[in-house]
Amino acid sequence: MRVMLAEDSTLLREGLVRLLAEEGHEVAAAVGDGDALLAAIAAAGEQGPPDVVVVDVRMPPTHTDEGLRAALEIRRRWPGVGVLVLSQYVEKRYATELITADTSGVGYLLKDRVAQVDEFLDALDRVGAGGAAFDPEVVRRLLAHSAHADPLARLTPRERDVLDTMAQGHTNASIAASLHISQSAVEKHINAIFDKLDLSHAAGYSRRVLAVLRYLGT
Q1: 3-state class of 134 per DSSP?
Q2: pTM above 0.85, yes or no
């Protein structure tokens, strides 16, 4: 396969170049930041884009998420290019966007996995063939993130209206008058809110306080 690398650590970059060459892959470019990787792909000429890019997440100039943003741009501009992301950490926001957009030809490995040469090469082959390769720890973190997603997303629009009015300090009777619904309907909505926010077993008036705190904390 033709491969391009973006890794700001010279030692790791050169190590990957040697490893890939020994495995029979052509390393068409090895650069130190995301912009240089995008430029290398754009300047590929008659050979065209590589089969796969291997890109670090945190690179110059800010060492935050340059690599992931470059990966997303590559997926947008050259959808046929496989993208294998390497990271010291699980960057949830961009990892989720990368994975959920299209899992064909996408991989995300923690850098510790690169030391397991066979696993790294297997992931590279899978991504190059249009498959997916996700580090088990990445999957675990993203699943944990999904499991703890915003609980307010579970509320219906009417339940959110009730909670919004409750957060303003209104009583049930006042909420009913404000939303032009019956007081019994308000009570049903509030009980549903408690259930969806896992507050059903909280005692007494504290449930209202806890629900409002959840709401104000989002």
Answers
A1: strand
A2: no
